[in-house]
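User: Can you predict the 3D structure of Leucine-rich repeat domain-containing protein? Sequence below.
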Amino acid sequence: MNIAQQIFLKGNLQLSELKVTKEYYELVDYLKNYPNLQKIEFSRLDLSKRDDLLQDLKNHRKLRELIAQQCNINNLLNIHNLDNLISLDLRTNNITEIQIISQLSKLQFLDLSSNQLTSLKGIEALKSLEIFKVSNNKLSNIDDLLHLENIIEIDLDYNQLSNIHGLKNSTRIKKMQINYNNLQDLEGFPNNSKIRVLQANHNFLKNLVGIGMQPCLGKLIITSCSLESLKGIEGLVALEIACLSDNKLKSLQGIEFIKELKQLDLNNNLLQNIDGIQRLVELNVLNVCCNKIKSLNPLQDSINLQNLFVDNNELTSFEGIQNCVQLEEVQAKSNKISNLQHLNSLKRVTFINLENNNVYDLRQLLFLQDLNQLSQLWLTQEDANSSQYANKICSHPLYQSYCSKVLPQVQYFEYNVEYDRGAIFHGCKFNSSKVNLNQKFDVETELSEELTNQLKQQ
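Assistant: Sure. Here are the predicted structure tokens for Leucine-rich repeat domain-containing protein:
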């Protein structure tokens, strides 16, 4: 610290905020000179050997916010009498117990993430607490939260919790994160709460029983939990976003009650059909990739659907989406699709991905001719089990020429161009009006049945 900075600190007795970093560690020696400090921030300092400094804190009775991240603090002996404190951030320290902070009755924000806590004993006295973050600890029980009825946001990620009974009285809660724990059910969830966002990824939940009636819950994220059914979801009448990927769902029974649902992610489950989705008329984003779905017929009434992701299923056609006239994006790679007829009515679609399907007739591209908004079309990608293209039309020598003539609106084709040197360029971008193709093809000439059969046999 230079002389000018020292003079400033010595003379500025009314200083209200002070931040001390590793680069300016000597600032801590001036701490006792500023009784009017309302905010102090320590960052990445080793305070474990500065008992004198921590003792000086008790004289700052006007202090309202204290931040001490990564400071190697292992106890709270010199913090408990800061009775005007409303915000305390002690992330990434070595704190093992918090019972002594029970005197901080005005505390509204408390962050104890990444410490060594096994118990929350003492927190029950913090009646004013609204935001509590205690992720990355060793908690197996949160019953000490039973008397905290004013909590509106809580983060319990990365602990060892098997239940959430301690939250059953937290009816004001609006956001809860409880990812990476050992939950087997949601029993104890506060009924009729004000919760709007719930994240419970990477637990051991089999269903949603226990979640109860939640008239305000708008966003539900439960992934990688081994969910086998949606039993219990019927109480989430205001749900708009549901992410339920990487589970073991075989049925969507119950989803039909969630009439306000707008975004639904069911990626990587065990679904063979999507029955029930026909009731979700407000749906605009649907992801059912990596399932075993054979039909899209339940989407016939999904007139508001804008983005559809159906990669890695067992579809043979797009029958069922012809009424989804708001669709802008269709991701359908790695299916068994050979017929593109039902794409013809999607006048607003701009992107279609059909890689690794079974399109063998060039004339199928004629169904895309009237899609004036279509700007990207992906068709190639080699079959993983052979050196041939999965979509046989991509192997035909007239493929590129035919695409440029039939689909002049498309600005980006995903195709391969082989040069004499053997180089392969993927995803070449071009404007068909500027491309000089060696082979010419008359679109008016009808492809013969013989040619179609040849393509099919390749």
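Helices lie at 3-11, 51-57, 399-406, 449-457. Residues 3-11 form the longest helix (9 residues).
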